[in-house]
């Protein structure tokens, strides 16, 4: 099983990034997909989730700025991040969960700074 996250980088405040997480070795369409993030010195926090039937939810801190989506044919989940703020700086991780099965990606660094 592999979850490969990509798309992170350095962006100025107010900018945008799109993260991707491509999965292999799992029946992707059966898994709820979640993005988490961990800022330096802080605990990992939940960012957004998309269920197997496409329902989404996101943390209040990113609501209206971040959008999660999935492409089952490409076995990929996305996180479109707009109006980025310095507080969004973190390592972003994707997570796949189905019943007792749970897998994590390796993380991708997002840095928001001028």
How does this structure look, described?
The chain has 114 residues and is mainly β. Strands 2, 4, 5, 6, 9, 10 and 11 form a seven-stranded mixed β-sheet that branches. Strands 1-3-8-7 form a four-stranded antiparallel β-sheet, with no helix packed on it. Strand 4 and strand 5 form a beta hairpin.
Shape: globular
The rounded distance between the terminal residues' Cα atoms is 37 Å
- How are helices and strands ordered from N to C? EEEEEEEEEEE
Fraction of residues in helices? Answer: under 10%
Strand count? 11
Write down the overall mean pLDDT. 97
For the sheet with most strands, the description reads:
7 strands, mixed
User: From the alpha-carbon coordinates, what is the Rg to the nearest angstrom?
Assistant: 13 Å
**Total DSSP helices:** 0
Classify the secondary structure makeup into a structural class. mainly beta
List descriptors.
11 strands; 4-stranded antiparallel β-sheet; 114 residues; mainly beta; 7-stranded mixed β-sheet
Short description:
By secondary structure, this protein is mainly beta.
SSE topology:
Layout: E1 2-6, E2 9-11, E3 17-24, E4 32-38, E5 45-50, E6 56-58, E7 66-71, E8 76-81, E9 90-98, E10 101-104, E11 108-112
Parallel strand pairs: 2-11
Antiparallel strand pairs: 1-3, 3-8, 4-5, 4-9, 5-6, 7-8, 9-10, 9-11
């Amino acid at each position: 099983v592999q979850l490969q996250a990509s798309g992170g980088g350095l962006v100025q405040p107010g900018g945008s990034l799109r993260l991707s997480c491509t999965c292999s070795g799992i029946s992707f369409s059966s898994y709820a997909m979640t993005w988490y993030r961990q800022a330096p010195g802080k605990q990992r926090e939940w960012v957004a989730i998309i269920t197997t039937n496409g329902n989404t939810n996101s943390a209040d801190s990113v609501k209206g700025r971040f959008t999660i989506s999935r492409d089952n044919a490409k076995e990929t989940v996305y996180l479109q991040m707009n109006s980025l703020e310095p507080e969004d700086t973190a390592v972003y991780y994707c997570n796949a969960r189905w019943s007792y099965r749970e897998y994590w990606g390796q993380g991708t660094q997002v840095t928001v700074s001028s």
